[in-house]
């Protein structure tokens, strides 16, 4: 423990932590660039560092990149990272309503809370929770994915049918590529670039960033209404913390546990936390219109997934996300073996990682509050100047993923798809959820069926799988009942009947 304090509190470690967090926030705020890209590009720079210093820099970048995405998600309706996708639903409407400072302040505060709560789990429960994740087999993972996909109905807006249609389209988009059952390629239409399917990053950039660019281009000749960016409300009062504490706590716990499960990711954690906040709210109709609880749920959850994903990484050597896979490579490069032996052979590295996460979250909070006023100036830039810059970053980010123009064309194609979907009033969030979760669910279902010779019974005979499946069915029935009741209340016959009774 003393060696950990000496390593982390040295001037070099503090400087690396501040540098990594700052770079992560700025890269996370730029559409098209991701924390995974930043960490991958920075990994060769750590060859001359010690293992502890390298992990201080990389973990700080991890924390900062997840947090930075809320800036452009709130001000420009463009999520800087996929994890900030849900923040756009309420952050942008609140900014458009003249309260950008309030929206950003809520997001930064929730990010801090999510990071600290997940850090507590990392400190206290890394062993037991990592051991629990080992008990999840393929059917447990499939039932968990099934439960998450049912949540499409909870965030599909006023029309359940349009939400389910958008989710189904997302599932269809995820079908091209190699089949997890046979390994044969399918639905590639002669394009060998589709052998691995559509990449997530170009699809998300197209749906959210390029879609927004198309909308701005169509009205670029119109006089723009200057958004008055005020920092009023950035600092939360004690009453604000008390009011939103339960939502912060619940969303942070959800994000932490989602982060522990390998392959799920921060974007799914924010979706589930957002749905939980909406379903438990007394005013669910406010979500998507600038609800404070929506911003807090999304940002608390996506930052909490960082600490959750680090638990199986350092305790079992199992990466929980793309960035954790890169961090696993950093361990190997520096001669460290993540897993149970890491606690015995290199305890100072474990404590350094834990301490870095805490201090990086605190510095992220201070850094973002101090620079938000400067970063908010992005919203005042005329679209004629902003569109080319954003489009350039989108093209660079999509091309740099695999150094091929195909991903750029995919990005532009899904920009058109997103634009047409919004014109048809089809929500984008269910589309993305279906696209992200379908491959994960199919892979685990095929794996489970191979183990059981095609039997589906383990979905109902294994306790954890039965729990997730039951939750999925309950959520589906509840969502159908809620939307049916809303239609009955809003039907003309009901209105006439209510007026006559009055």
TrEMBL record:
This is Tripartite tricarboxylate transporter TctA family protein. Coiled coil: none annotated. Keywords: Membrane, Transmembrane, Transmembrane helix. It holds the Pfam family TctA. The keyword Transmembrane applies. Residues 15-433 form the DUF112 domain. The chain crosses the membrane at residues 21-43, 55-76, 103-124, 136-156, 163-180, 252-277, 309-337, 349-375, 381-402, 460-481. The keyword Cell inner membrane does not apply. InterPro entries: DUF112_TM.
């Amino acid at each position: 423990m003393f060696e950990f304090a000496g390593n982390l509190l040295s001037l070099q470690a503090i400087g690396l932590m501040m540098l990594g967090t700052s770079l992560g926030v700025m890269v996370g705020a730029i559409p098209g660039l991701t924390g995974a890209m930043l960490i991958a590009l920075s990994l060769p720079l750590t060859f001359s560092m010690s293992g502890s210093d390298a992990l201080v820099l990389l973990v700080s970048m991890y924390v900062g990149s997840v947090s930075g995405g809320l800036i452009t998600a709130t001000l420009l309706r463009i999520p800087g990272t996929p994890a900030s996708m849900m923040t756009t639903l309420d952050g942008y409407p609140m900014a458009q309503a003249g309260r950008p400072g309030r929206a950003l302040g809520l997001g930064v505060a929730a990010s801090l809370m999510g990071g600290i709560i997940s850090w507590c789990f990392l400190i206290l429960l890394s062993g037991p929770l990592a051991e629990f994740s080992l008990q999840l087999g393929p059917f447990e993972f499939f039932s968990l994915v099934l439960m998450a996909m049912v949540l499409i109905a909870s965030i599909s807006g006023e029309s359940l049918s349009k939400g389910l249609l958008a989710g189904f389209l997302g599932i269809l988009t995820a079908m091209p590529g190699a089949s997890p059952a046979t390994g044969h390629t399918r639905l590639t239409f002669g394009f060998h670039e589709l052998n691995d399917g559509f990449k997530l990053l170009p699809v998300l950039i197209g749906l959210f960033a390029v879609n927004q660019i198309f909308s701005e281009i169509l009205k670029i000749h119109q006089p723009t209404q200057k958004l008055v960016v005020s920092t009023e409300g950035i600092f939360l009062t004690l009453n604000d913390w008390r009011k939103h504490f339960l939502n912060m706590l619940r969303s942070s716990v959800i994000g932490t546990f989602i982060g522990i499960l390998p392959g799920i990711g921060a974007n799914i954690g924010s979706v589930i936390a957002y749905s939980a906040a909406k379903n438990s709210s007394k005013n669910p109709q406010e979500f998507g219109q600038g609800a404070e609880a929506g911003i807090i749920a999304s940002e608390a959850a996506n930052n909490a997934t960082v600490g959750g994903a680090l638990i199986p990484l350092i305790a079992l050597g199992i990466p929980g996300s793309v960035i954790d896979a890169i961090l696993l490579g950093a361990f190997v490069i520096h001669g460290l073996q993540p897993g149970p032996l890491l606690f015995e052979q290199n305890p100072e590295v474990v404590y350094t990682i834990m301490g870095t996460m805490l201090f990086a979250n605190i510095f992220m909070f201070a850094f973002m509050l101090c620079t938000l006023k400067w970063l908010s100036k992005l919203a005042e830039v005329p679209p004629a100047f902003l569109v080319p810059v954003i489009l350039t970053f989108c093209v660079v980010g999509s091309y740099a993923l695999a150094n091929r123009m195909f991903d750029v064309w995919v990005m532009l194609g899904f920009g058109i798809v997103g634009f047409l979907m919004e014109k048809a009033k089809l929500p984008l969030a269910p589309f993305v959820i279906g696209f992200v979760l379908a491959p994960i669910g199919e892979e685990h279902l095929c794996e489970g069926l191979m183990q059981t010779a095609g039997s589906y019974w383990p979905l109902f005979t294994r306790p954890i799988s039965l729990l997730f499946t039951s939750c999925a069915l309950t959520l589906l029935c509840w969502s159908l009942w809620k939307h049916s009741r809303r239609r009955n209340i809003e039907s003309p016959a009901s209105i006439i009947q209510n007026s006559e009774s009055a």
